[in-house]
Amino acid sequence: MTLSYINEIVVVSLGDPNLVELADLWLDLFGYIVNNMKRYALKLVFFLLFAFSTDMALACSYGASTVSEKYQRSDLIVIGKIESVKPSVVDQTVVVSIEKTYKGKALKQIVLDQPQSTCDWDFTDDVGKTMLLYIGRNSKTKRYYAISPGIQGRIERMSEDIYWLKNLPGSLKRTRLSGTVELYKGGVLNWAKDPFEFVKSVSGIKVKVFSDKDSFEIVTDKNGVYEIWDIPLGKYQVQTVLPPDLIPHLEMEKGSIYDPKSNYDSFGIRKPDATPYLIDIQPNSCGGMDFVVKQKPLQPATP
């Protein structure tokens, strides 16, 4: 018996709700974890952005993780420049000049009515920036909005998605295993004074991909992306070969994940000696793994 699932990521981020809302949300999160213990044990990534301050922590469940999943979920996919953001109490009015359309009606400009809950994308700091946007349309109001915050971003961070989108419509009928290697800093002792921050995409990192039948080696490009198109169907392990000055920090699977039942004890908790997660490449699908690395701490000089 095996277990396959679509990866979900829960991210805890800074917010400013009242205590009642915070308590309710954490109760909901606890219930979700209890009801999905095996999935939680498999891969429920938490970025705990909580510091010693008056800010409160909220949890957001991000949606689709691979570009093919994002494509299916979106009504409109565009590259556009954020021209203006006008906030209100409950939402933002965001004007976007469209430079490229990958899905949906080709428009020159679009106005987003963007909700402003903690889990929605906040465009306040993006004015003047060019972004890849996955956009939904409310079936009742016909208004557009940017869908889940974890699946879009500024153009310089979205190369992996753009490679796939540029190959449309052919990419819809091809397999691809891909991911990124990114360098982060901070987030060790005090999140407020030393936040966990993106530094750069890391090029030149060797990535090993192998199954029982096939093996591949590839190097990340200038945008920190590795990809293997038309990879044979199967279950693959993905590993990086890091230089001495870098250390692994996080690994985030995406797509369909294979994980045998034997990896878990009778309580549904993943065993310490469990076999690695495998990326299950299925027909016309994407999958892969993103790697977050950090600089290796400098060793004190020997007297």
What does this structure look like?
The protein is mainly beta. It folds into three domains: 2-61, no CATH class; 67-158, OB fold (Dihydrolipoamide Acetyltransferase, E2P); 161-295, Sandwich (Immunoglobulin-like), CATH 2.60.40.10. Helices cover 13% and strands 42% of the residues. It has a six-stranded antiparallel beta sheet, with no helix packed on it. Strands 4, 5, 6, 7, 8 and 9 form a six-stranded antiparallel beta sheet that branches. The protein is globular.
Defining traits:
303 residues; mainly beta; OB fold (Dihydrolipoamide Acetyltransferase, E2P); Immunoglobulin-like; 3 domains; 6-stranded antiparallel β-sheet; 4 helices; 19 strands; 13% helix
Kindly summarize this structure in a few lines.
The protein is mainly beta and 303 residues long.
Q: What's the alpha carbon Rg, rounded to whole Å?
A: 20 Å
What is the CATH domain class of the largest domain? Mainly Beta
Order of helices and strands: EEHHEHEEEEEEHEEEEEEEEEE
Number of helices: 4
Name of the CATH architecture of the largest domain: Sandwich
What overall geometry do the principal axes of the alpha carbons give?
globular
- Compute the number of structural domains: 3
Classified in CATH, the superfamily of the largest domain is Immunoglobulins
Low-confidence stretches: 1-59
Main sheet attributes: strand count, strand direction, barrel closure: 6 strands, antiparallel
Extended strand count: 19
Q: Biggest sheet: strands side by side, in what order?
A: 1-17-18-15-12-13
CATH topology of the largest domain: Immunoglobulin-like
Strand content: 35-45%
